[in-house]
Amino acid sequence: MRITEAARRLGTSPRMLRYRDTLGLLPGLRPAAGSAAAAPHRQFAQEDLDAVALALAIEHRYDISPAALAFGVRVLAEAPVRAEVAELARRIGRVPAPAARALDFEQERALRLLSMPRRLIQPQRSQRPEPRLR
Fold first, then answer.
1. What is the pLDDT of residue 106?
2. CA 128 to CA 1: how far, in whole Å?
3. Which segments of 58-106 are extended strands (E)?
4. Residue 42: which of 21, 63, 65, 12 has the closest Cα?
5. Domains along the chain?
6. Per-residue pLDDT reduced to its tens digit, 76-92
7. What pLDDT score does 115 carry?
8. 42: burial class by Cβ within 10 Å (0-12, 13-18, 19+)?
9. Distances (CA, A) of 26 to 30, 118, 130
10. Of 43, 61, 74, 104, which residue is 20 to 30 A from 32 by alpha carbon distance?
11. Is 17 exposed, middle or buried (0-12, 13-18, 19+ CB in 10 A)?
């Protein structure tokens, strides 16, 4: 279906769908049957409408703009952007710093064990009787 019909079904305008397209929030183009390859008209399938409806629901639920959602998608899709945003989140205290290396964890664990009373550290012997050899 064409953009006008898709917009009507989604309860939005063709202009808003084109704006979402510029933000990268629409699936790829599908040329219309018989149209020139140089100027394809967007054709919307049900899967495309479902994707746009999901985007609209996310924007409404979290009270964000289409541009903010587009940036969220970019963060998920591009590792360098994700790394920079994660660093910012750590610096402003929104995300805890990643756990230190495993060696640091093991060192902290060993120090905790050394500070415990010896009776708690010693392994307990099994309550089962030892097998008798014949």
1. 77
2. 74
3. none
4. 21
5. 3-77 (1.10.1660.10)
6. 999 999 999 999 999 99
7. 78
8. buried
9. 11, 64, 70
10. 74
11. buried
User: What letters, b where the CB count within 10 A reaches 16 and e where it falls short, cover 45-55?
Assistant: eeebbebbeeb
Q: 69 Cβ partners below 8 Å, 6+ apart?
A: 23, 25, 55, 58, 59
CA-nearest of 29, 26, 28, 20 to 67 is 20
| The model's pTM | 0.64
Q: Which two tokens stand for residue 94?
A: 């929104």
Among residues 44, 55, 34, which one has the least CA distance to residue 9? 44
Task: Give the Cα-Cα-Cα angle 109, 112, 116 (nearest 5 degrees).
Answer: 140
Say yes or no to pLDDT of 72 above 90.
Answer: yes
Spell out the residues 6+ positions from residue 34 whose beta carbon is closer than 8 angstroms to its own: none
